[in-house]
Amino acid sequence: MTTSTSDWPWQYHFPPFFTLQPHPETRSKQVAAWKSLILDYCQKNKLYIIDVREAHQLPLFHNTTMNRKLDSSVIVSILSELAKTGNAASLDKTKNRWEIYWHTLEEWASMIYDHICELGMQNSVLTLFELSQGDDVQSKEFASMQTDVLIKVLRVLENERKCELILSDEDQGVKFF
Predict the structure, then answer these.
(1) 3-state SS string over the chain?
(2) What is the pLDDT of residues 108-154, one digit of tens each?
(3) How many CA atoms lie within 13 A of 21 on its CB side?
């Protein structure tokens, strides 16, 4: 998603969108629109981390045409709502750094395991680099997934007994079952 006006939903060009609305029904619709916009933006830009302290550097939270910014406390509030649906996770107690998942960890896990099964790679060991950067995954949505997120996704599969993570100082890999 670039900053061209055609890429943003109509709300992005509506100044009140950048101020948390007091009326509960309006606020609910506003928060839902922000949640959708954040997930779409992160997906299109393969953005896995949002640092609230630097969020105003992103066009997502700063409409320079209107000179409107979403307040940091509102950003935290919306990211907290995304966390309730499994689409975000705070990385620190101060809620400054957030991982964003445009698919839940469970959805990502299913996509990766389906890919492994399609290729008949059960009982194979892959490095995390191969799984996120390899030639076989370049057309997949999980290509170039950030390593920390990939490990969390693989932990979901590990809990389902579909893989075993191999994490040491020298090696980072996974064996699929």
Answers:
(1) CCCCHHHCCHHHHCHHHHCCCCCHHHHHHHHHHHHHHHHHHHHHHCCCEEEHHHHHHCCCCEECCCCEECCHHHHHHHHHHHHHCCCEEECCCCCCEEEECCCCHHHHHHHHHHHHHHCCCCCCEEEHHHHHHCHHHCCCCCCCCCHHHHHHHHHHHHHCCCEEEEECCCCEEEEEC
(2) 999 999 999 999 999 999 999 999 999 999 999 999 999 999 999 99
(3) 17
Q: Are the C-beta atoms of 104 and 95 separated by less than 8 Å?
A: no
Residues facing residue 166 across a β-bridge: 173
How would you classify the pairing of strands 68-69 and 62-63? antiparallel
Contacts of residue 77, defined as CB under 8 A and 6 or more positions apart, other chains included, come to: 20, 31
